[in-house]
Each structure stands twice: as C-alpha cells, then as structure tokens.
Design brief:
The chain has a single domain, classed as TIM Barrel (Alpha-Beta Barrel). The protein contains 12 helices and 13 strands. It has helices spanning 31-40, 59-72, 91-94, 118-125, 141-150, 163-174, 185-189, 192-198, 211-219, 236-239, 254-263, 269-283, and strands spanning 7-11, 13-18, 43-48, 76-82, 100-104, 132-135, 155-157, 179-183, 226-227, 293-302, 321-331, 334-338, 341-342. Strand 2 (13-18), helix 1 (31-40) and strand 3 (43-48) form a beta-alpha-beta unit. Bound molecules: N-carbamoyl-L-aspartate and zinc ion (2 copies).
Length: 352
C-alpha cells in the first residue's frame, strides 16, 4: 500500500437519509445524540426522515419536530416531509420548510406504506421540484418508471441495493428522466452471508443482497449519486426481541468505510467527495460553507461498539479494520468536535 498522509481534510459531509427518532422514540436516538453521531462521522448536515412514531404528515407535527430539534442539534439539519397520500392540503404549507417528500412503497419501520395507485396523485400534488424520495425495492420498479414518465418530477431513489434496482435507475437516467439514487454503506460492504452471522443486527430494509448484486453496485459507481447512511438506530433490546425492527445505525461508520475503500483503490477521492458532499448538497439544496471542514486521522484502527455517540450503541461493522477517524470538525469556522468530544452547544446547529 502507498504511504498515506497522516491527516486529510474534507469539506463538510451531507447525509440526506437519517432517522433520528425524535420526537416519539427518543429511547433509540434523539436530536442531540443523533447529530453528535453525525459530527463524529464527519457529517455537518443531516436530513431527517419523517417515519417518526407519529409520522410527520402535517404542518403541526413538522413544527413540533423543528421546535425539538432547535433546542438540541449540534450539526445542521433539515427534514423530509411524509405522506400516506391523504395530506395534500399540507403540502403548500410545509414546502418551504422541508428538503423533500418521502414516500414508502414497501413495508418498513413504522406503518407507513402507501397504496401503489396513490403514487401518481402524490407526484401531481407535490408543489415543487424539491425531490420526492422513494423507498422502492425491486418489486415496485415498474411503477416508479411509469410514474416518473407521466409526471417527471425530481426523484431520489433511496438505498438502492440490487442489480435490478440500479438497472432501473440507469435506464431512467439514460432516458433523461430526473432521477438520482443513493446507496448505503451496508449494501456496499455487507452481503447476505454477513446477514447469517449478524442475525437481527443485519436485519434492515432493503435486506442484504448476494455478492453479485453488491458487485454490480461497485461496477456502476458512476450512476450512484449519493452514499447515504440510512442511519436507523434501534436498541439492543429491540434487536434481541422476537420481532426485531428493520434498520442499522450508520452515521459513524460510513466515512471510515468509504475512506478504506478509497485507500484500497475501489473508488477515487474525487468520487468519495462527490457522493458524500457535492451531490447530496446539490440534489437537496443544502449548500456548505467553505469554512465547514472535517479533519481526519488516517491511521488504521478497528471499528467497535464502544464510544459511539448513537444511543443504539452498536454497529454491524464492529471488528472491521478501517482507516479514517474524524479528529476535528469545524462548522462556519467554529470548532464543534475534537478528539471524540462534541464541543458545540446543544441547539447551535442550524435548521436549514
Ligand atoms: C428504517 C427505520 O428503521 O426507520 N429502517 C430500515 O431498515 N432502513 C426505515 C427505512 O429507511 O426503510
Ligand atoms: Zn427505506
Ligand atoms: Zn431509511
């Protein structure tokens, strides 16, 4: 391996797909612990999903969520709105306060799935070109293509995990449709083989896929706009129960995994910066100040469950050797994180 510099700096990273569970499930995570995990992982902006215990489908719930975030966040944050296809009156009221609209086309955490026929109505009703984010696995690919051809609004396909899903995105992009996609680190670095070993701790939506799907993702990196953590914390007690919920935490492991892949020559630093900073900032319109910088120590170390900021307190990547530990984070010239300690005051992050 080539000799590497001891530290590197990157611009502030943007994660457009996190579940910070606040309000409603703050035993799993809250805005303070979730944004602390973001800083520890080099993310200075996170975009929070709406599948809270009470889904964020009204202005009132959005405002309550923003009020809670205002008191606590140590990174910058924005929110995606939710819909079950029956809250179109709320869309114009919230449009200036959110970064996108999240639609669940498959069953996942929270009872949030919509009827397929409602998708096109949702597309027509969403009053802006802020992205519509889809949780859409293989089985609904056809529906997505059809809807997007009928109403070509900016669409971000979340957590693409299989060859079939990525092929749909590639076809849609090649046809000129306004589509982008994200892939999670767990789908890039774990397969169905790991799922056997990890049991409930490798249980997430979409599920871990065979090697052949993972290989296809790596071979078509240029079609992947964003690496998104899909940080979905659940407690050990929940994971150890008879009905473990879907989801794994990811904010603190995404950057080291990607930097390790870069060191191994699996992607370039330019691609890494595009997928963790430039593209998510552009797609979700969250500009990052030039004085927002992440410093990273490039010594090798082992990922572990200890000292994580996420309340979940575990990672499916424990035991993995990586390079790249965030040593310092500066937001708008202010030091907010150093050597494992968050120095920003709760509430000092900005609601975008
Ligand atoms: C997410 C969660 O726990 O909120 N779970 C998951 O497995 N990814 C929901 C989601 O993104 O589908
Ligand atoms: Zn999802
Ligand atoms: Zn998610």
């Amino acid at each position: 391996m080539a000799i590497m510099p001891k530290t590197i700096t990157l611009p502030g990273l943007v994660d457009p797909h996190v579940h910070l569970r606040d309000p409603g499930q703050t035993h799993k995570e809250d805005f303070l612990t979730g944004t602390s995990a973001a800083l520890a992982g080099g993310f200075t902006t996170v975009l929070d999903m709406p599948n809270n215990a009470e889904p964020i489908t009204t202005l009132e719930r959005l405002e309550a969520k923003i009020a809670s975030a205002k008191q606590q966040v140590v990174s910058d944050i924005s929110f995606h709105f939710g819909t079950l296809g029956n809250n179109f009156d709320e869309f114009p009221k919230v449009i200036d306060k959110v970064s996108g609209l999240k639609v669940y086309l498959n069953v996942t955490t929270g009872n949030f799935i919509i009827d397929a026929e409602r998708l096109i109505d949702i597309y027509r009703a969403w009053p802006s070109n802020k992205p519509i984010l889809l949780h859409a696995e293989d089985d609904v690919s056809e529906l997505v293509g059809k809807t997007l051809r009928a109403v070509p609004k900016a669409t971000h396909v979340c957590h693409v995990s299989s060859q079939a899903e990525l092929e749909l995105v590639i076809r849609s992009k090649d046809a000129g449709l306004p589509i982008t996609c994200g892939v999670t680190p767990h789908h890039l670095f774990l397969t169905d083989k790991d799922a056997e070993r990890l049991r409930a701790y490798g249980h997430m939506k979409p599920s871990l896929k065979p090697q052949i799907d993972q290989d296809f993702l790596w071979q078509h990196l240029d079609y992947i706009d964003v690496i998104e953590s899909d940080h979905a914390p659940h407690t050990r007690a929940e994971k150890d129960s008879d009905t473990p919920p879907f989801g794994v935490p990811g904010l603190e492991t995404t950057l080291p995994l990607m930097l390790t892949a870069e060191a191994e020559g699996r992607l370039t630093m330019k691609q890494l910066i595009e997928k963790l900073h430039t593209n998510p900032a552009r797609i979700f319109k969250t500009p990052i100040d030039d004085d927002t910088v992440v410093t990273i120590d490039m010594d090798e170390y082992e990922l572990s469950n200890d000292q994580l900021k996420t309340k979940a307190g575990w990672t499916p990547f424990a035991g993995r050797r990586v390079v790249g530990k965030v040593s310092q984070v500066t937001i708008r010239s202010n030091e907010v994180f150093k050597n494992g300690v968050v120095s920003a005051l709760p509430g000092s992050g900005i609601i975008l």
